[in-house]
Structures
1.
Amino acid sequence: MTAVPSADEVGRFWNDGLIARRGRPDGGSRPGAEPERLVPVARPLVPAGPRTTTSAAGQALRPRLDALRELVGLSRARLDRRTLAEAGRVLEEAAARHRHSLDLTVVALAGSTGSGKSSLFNALARAQLSEAGVRRPTTAMPVSCAWTDRADGVLDRLGIPARARRQPVRPYDPALSGLVLLDLPDHDSAAVGHREQVDRLLGLVDAVIWVVDPEKYADAVLHERYLRPLAGYAEVTFVVLNQVDRLSTDAADQVLDDLRRLLDEDGLALGEHGEPGAAVLALSALTGEGVGELREALGAFTSRRCAAELRLTADVDGVSARLRRAYVADGRPGLTERARQEFEDRLAEAVGAQAAGLSAERAWRRDAERACGTAFKRVRGWHDRLFLGVRARHRAADDDIEPVGYASPQRRTASRPLVERAVRALAYEASAGLPDPWAQAVREAAARGAEGLAEALDEVAAVAAETAATCAGGTARAVRPRWWAAIAAGQGALLAMQLLGAVWLVGTFTGDFGGPWWLPAELLAGGSVGGPVLAWCGRIAARGPARGYGLETEHRLRGAAAGCGRARVLEPVAAELLRYREVRAQFVIAAGEA
Amino acid sequence: MATLDVRPRLLDALSALRDRVDAARFPLPLPGAARARRNRAELLAQLDDYLVPRLCAPEAPLLAVVGGSTGAGKSTLVNSLVGRRVTEAGVLRPTTRTPVLVCHPDDHHWFAGSRVLPRLQRVWVPMQECAAAAYEAEAMDDDASADAVEHEPFALRIETDRALPRGLALLDAPDIDSLVEHNRDLAAALVCAADIWVLVTTATRYADAVPWHLLRTAKEYDVTLVTVLDRVPHQVAVEVSRQYDAMLEKAGLGDVPRFTIPELPESADGSGLLPATAVAGLRAWLAQRAEDPAARTVATARTARGVLSSLGSRLPGLAGASAVQHAAAVRMLQSVEEAYGRAVERVRREIAAGEALAGDALTHWRGHPHDSTPDELLNALTGSVIALLTCAADAADEGIAAACGGDPAAEAALAPRDPDGASGRIGVAVRRWRRCLEEIAQEEVRAAERDRGNEAEKTAALLAAALLGGGRAGAAGDTLARTLGAGAALRLRDRGGELLSDCLEQVLEGERDRRTAPLEALELTPDHQVELIAVLSLLQKER
């Protein structure tokens, strides 16, 4: 018999085509596995070599096991070990089971003390193989009976000692060929060791025959500890009501109906009307009544040769149902366009884009007014600017007085609380539809991205402020509109007109110049009225471009801030979401929902 | 026998103890809390149903409760003891859904009132209808509330029969391991009310874990116990009973009286009665306990004493669970308080560093007064403070979530996080602060007789900038001092600073209190523990 491969070999080569070679004697399976060693596990393998027919259940099972393995690998960093332990165990069991022939069907007889498991075992084997008695509990050690000569590997795996391995009377009953029957200890006696053994073996066998009796069929311990949790295994479950000889026929029917009702309440699908599900039979191991039917049912079940795969399918179903909470949550995961927009808006608010735009607009208008203003205003403007310059320098000096330990003032422009809030809101939105572990990962990604974000935004704001400062310097304004110069020239002309008018008027009154007095007076009046009118027109004309300039400044700053946020926070978060989607896709395959 | 005289002081101590136990609550879902709740309910049931009535009326009939697993043949046994079918028996499990009490007609008055088992409604209807009524009661109960142990409308049917001796009542309890969970609770409560526990098991069941658990409990309480090994097939009777004796001996229950009842065709179908000879031994034993005053006193006193002394170990358990609850509550409160304490500190530090003067506010401040109006500056500063506080509150909530992460008790006892509501409340509080600021600015401006144009608004904006700007807005203070005079400016800054700090503290304390309100409402004080121990020591002095 082949040596049991080490755990990591099992882990890597569980699907190396052993199923394909299951037709061969067990001994031949190991060497053939060698050449496929380097094939990555992630890719579902097409088994090499001629495949014997495999059941539909087996074909559906393989991709699901692949996906489950992939899933475990992908989520190891996200989920804790306890959550994944069961999936790992199922994969290991699947690997271990696949190493043994799937022609064998391992069926265990389980039940309460005194239900007659051993008697039924003996009745099926047609020999006194297991000790049956009135002492409770009777069977302390599981006993096996194999209708095949190739069961040693399987029995090794089950941990049945050699002295407890029995064989039925030869020649083997051909109907039951391939059956390995186990007689388990009870699950409800005061001897705790028995229960542990039962729990261990129930995890390893392919199918279970639950033996109940009229007295104990409604025991809470049987239904609550075993049948309800194992409801998913209906297809590989038999429930037999033993000891019907103790009841009258009527009473037996009543009890059987009541048992069916209880099983239905447990959620166990019953195999009635040809539907897949648990078979429920009444029999008496003592008188032999009904044992033949059970043999027939067992024979049919064994000859289908799919018990192991059905059981593993139920295992995968169970584990994926329990993992569902870790992989699927209600709600659609993902970042909506609105959430992104809100994030960018918040960042823009944090760097003060709107206020910057507003102040740029006002600065532009002031410049325009100054350029288009009347000559007298201009003189006052020069004076003001001198004064203002002093003020601005004061402000800058104020900013320099910073508490120790803070970055230089010019760099600390972005509002930290707003940045923090923006990131938090984004993380909240992004993790809304995610199961806990993945939501945590998204939040962590966002928090990591947020670490240098405020400083980067300071930088952005500083660059923008520098551009604005060079613009506001006046000398270097990139595009100084032509019409400013035209209006300035007009204002000059009007001033000249005023001066001319004034000189002329004085001349007229003193008599140095001739002509009517009203002409120079009109010149003077026209000049004095035209200046403010022209300035007013300039102001009106400046409104539009100023607004445009302000908006442009705002957009520039907003764009720069948004770019910063995108690179540092949005992209890592989106990547994390993408990873989740991948995992979820694998989960859907593993859960058999694809 | 001294123990069973009516002793008012002992009764007083017991009723004080009962009230304390009744007052004990274990609302937090901590490990062990479910167990403590169950223990409390059991203890209450035992005090109400058994100990207090028994000590009040030592002469009341003995109550023998027949308990055991499903299908052990309890009902058949009771029917056989009485000699007629008083309780339904059958092959379908669980059989007994409404417990039945059988007593002599002269003893009827002892059980008709609410002296014992006050929580069970007495049912008088004939048998068939009674079963239907019980079903309905169960259905109603499912609809109403499954977990409110106190309000379950369980029913108790009382039958009288002259076949029973005076001074003895038999109670047929539901299965202790029934699939119907209510039945299980009811069975436990009934067994707790017994003077004599009659535990029934069968030849196939005697090694089951469930009956053994009950036997061990009986030993722990040192009650008057009798076991019945039912349904023993003739051919194995000797071996099985020897085996069972050995197991009892090993468990330290060797001196417990035990009776063996053979499996007969009548017991198989559960419909008939067993012949009188089969149950004669048990019947005689029970009758002797009821009729012989000495034996009777021994039987009742033993159970009562056993239960009384079991209080010595059970009450400290409850007190311990109560202390654990209190400790958990204190721990949670502390972590919430720490988190919000850190939040207050953080907000203070950030404001001192001028963190609020950033973003929009900073731009407006730089542009003030030429590019930005005072109103804009004030708006931006208010927004900054709101952001700062919201952020601190969020961070505090996150800190709490990290500290109590995955703790079901915290999830149950702390109010859920409410980021949207919090930012709304913070906004209201900060805008109120702003209005206060504007008012005091107006006052000072009026006092300085400079109340023209938007001078008040300007002053308020400068004041806000000076308060929030830390070192960054020194110019604001200078301007204020220049326009209002140094004294007035200083006064204004002091008042504004006070308002700001009040506002910050109020906001964060409000949020903290909102989170802890449900926990505070649970009133988990250390008093429960202290009082439980106090009443116990009082009781022990009285015994």
Note: Chain A touches chain B through 65 residues (CB under 8 Å).
2.
Amino acid sequence: MNILVHLFLPRRTNNYRSKLLHHHILLFFITLLFAGSFLMLQIKRNYPQVLGIKINITNEQLLSITNEKRQQNNLSPLNINPALNTAAEKKAEDMFAKNYWAHISPTGTTPWIFIKESGYNYVYAGENLAKGFNNAQEAVDAWMASPTHRENELSPNYQDVGFAVKTGKINGEDTILIVEEFGGRTLAQIPQSSSLQAISFLPSSSPVVKSASSFKPLIDSVLFSSNIYLVLIGLFIIVLTLDMIIVEKNKIVRIAGHNIDHILFFLTILLAGVIIMKGVVI
Amino acid sequence: MSKKTKHIGHRITLILILLLGLLSLQLAYANKKLQAEILILTAIFYVLWGLTHHHQNHSLNSKIVIEYILIAALGIAVLLFFITGAIGL
């Protein structure tokens, strides 16, 4: 108990400054975190089966949420189509292999090529992409919040859909990529997406690409690092607050920075983490 | 200008610096490298603000300089740990 008081509260034994806020303890945490980051990176690279990104998104969840949105808008539900699933998988693999985040590849391959190559003869076709989301609901919500993606989600022209959820690296970042390919075989209006170009399709695969169903690391690196991040920031905000209250209350005079400044800075770091981890859609 | 007014003015400046950092992070959402640079810049500005604030209050000394540098470094280190686990480098 005495040790906890010594660590968390300012008193005579810690020179009226919570021990956790002493310079050498701060330096210890900084060193530990930098070393931990380096170690985690090495384990993720060399032993991905031990520490890696665990995907909690399935095609079934994506279909169910998408159809829920469609039914809310009085539209018929979409059916999973194996050919569109293949097209989505090929598209995701192509994005990782050629390192791009776009609907059209750097070599000019459009999504329609992947759909045609998979054997799906469409009249209408569309594609939604998302990266950086850790659950299906957030990804579909992000698509619904964007007018152009919402148009695809709620188009009456589509009857079929295919999904791919894969992890890999794009621009050096570990990414959970979600590809959603829409298709409609029934001619209802003037075709809107028949802009097929005569570009050769080069199937590609990358060793760093892992499919959602086959890859489950022992420890989820996202959960592991985010828990430590939240615990440490929370711990320092609590210690700084307690230290500030007790010093103010007891009118203790000491040479130290203002805790309120440090609390504001840690709150900024907390919000920065939320912003950095936000997924994006195109 | 009273000491209290000066303190409030300084604190508003700090909040603006931190909010500007967060806004820049949001604007650079698709570019993780730029986001990392913005974070480091925000931490540097935080230290500079701390030193200026204590200098104007005639309370600046080496202990305070080290404290602001360590707190900024700790913030960056904990965020780096999080990013390494969640995104990779």
Note: Chain B has one domain: 3-83.
